[in-house]
Structures are given as C-alpha cells and as structure tokens.
Amino acid sequence: MNESKCPVPREQQPTNEFIELSKSRIFSWPKTKKSLIAILIKFWVGAFLLFLGISSGSVYFKTSLLRYILLSFFSSLSIPLLISIRLYLGWKHIFNRLISEKVEYEESGWYDGQVWEKPLVLKEKESLIASIEVKPILKNLIQILSILSVLVLSGILIFQYNNF
User: Fold this and answer.
1) Is the pLDDT of residue 3 over 50?
2) For residue range 65-114, what is the model confidence (pLDDT) as tens digits?
C-alpha cells in the first residue's frame, strides 16, 4: 500500500498481516499439506501416549484393554482437531481481510475503529494473493478438519452404541 495515501497502520494492512502470518512458526505449517499432516500426526501420537498414561489409572479400563486403547485413540484426536481449528480460523481471518473491499483498522485502540475503502489496484492485488496463496491453504485445512471430525464422531458413536 502506498504509505502516503493509506491511513491504515502498517501492521494492520491485510498484505502485511498475510506476510506476518506466513512467517509465523505455527501458521506456516499448512503451507504444504504433507508437512501439516506430519506435524498433526506427531501431535496425535504424543497426545495418544499421554492419554494412554492418564486413562491407565482407571480401574474401569483395566477390565477392558480394547476399550482403554480405543478411548485413548479417539480422545487424543482432540489435540490435532483443536490445532487445525486454530489454524483454519487464523487463515480464514486473513482471507476475509484480503478479499474485503474495505479495511477496518484502529488508530490507537479498540475505541476508535475506522474503515478505509481500498483502491481498485489494491483490491485486485490482495484478491490475487487470497486466491493464489490463501485459498489452497484453507482448502487443505477444510479437508483435514473433515477427516478429523469424521474420526472423532465415529469414536463418539462407537462408545455411545457399543458395549464391549
């Protein structure tokens, strides 16, 4: 953005927010689908081991080893699910700011919000960034969230309707 004509503070400009989010350690994970899946699997395995340890203290589960392992498996999926939701919300916020025709910003605090309409050149540039850079990330995150949600819901159904 042209600094002389743009009243939006530099750190609140959508393009700069996108660059900062892209450089962020956690939010850069979804840039490639394979690396995000690998990271989520690592978190899932760590959570699975932690949940195995936590649920091993239950007297109830000492009688049913299968139930004990399945409960740890499905409950540990909550960690990658929460991480994926957080990543999706952050990238969706940036996507909405990039495709918006107006930029909402604050000059000095929450009480003095302003709105600035983007010039046509900037709208086109940020729309291009949103469609080429951010939209594939959101698509990957939605696919991963769908898979995790199906797994979590299937676990809930298994424990709701099976007595093993």
Assistant:
1) no
2) 888 888 889 999 999 999 999 999 999 999 999 999 999 888 776 667 88
Question: Domain limits of the chain?
Answer: 33-103+113-161
Please list the residues that pair with 102 across neighbouring strands: 117
| Degrees to nearest 5, angle at CA 104 with 99 and 108 | 145
Residue 63 DSSP one-character state: S
Question: What are the structure tokens assigned to 56, written together?
Answer: 């091993």
Contacts of 109 (CB under 8 A, 6+ apart): none
How far apart CA 51 and CA 71 sit, in angstroms, is 9
Q: Rounded to two decimals, what is the model's pTM?
A: 0.87
DSSP type of residue 100: -
At 88, list the tokens.
């999706």
CA 163 to chain CA mean position, Å: 35
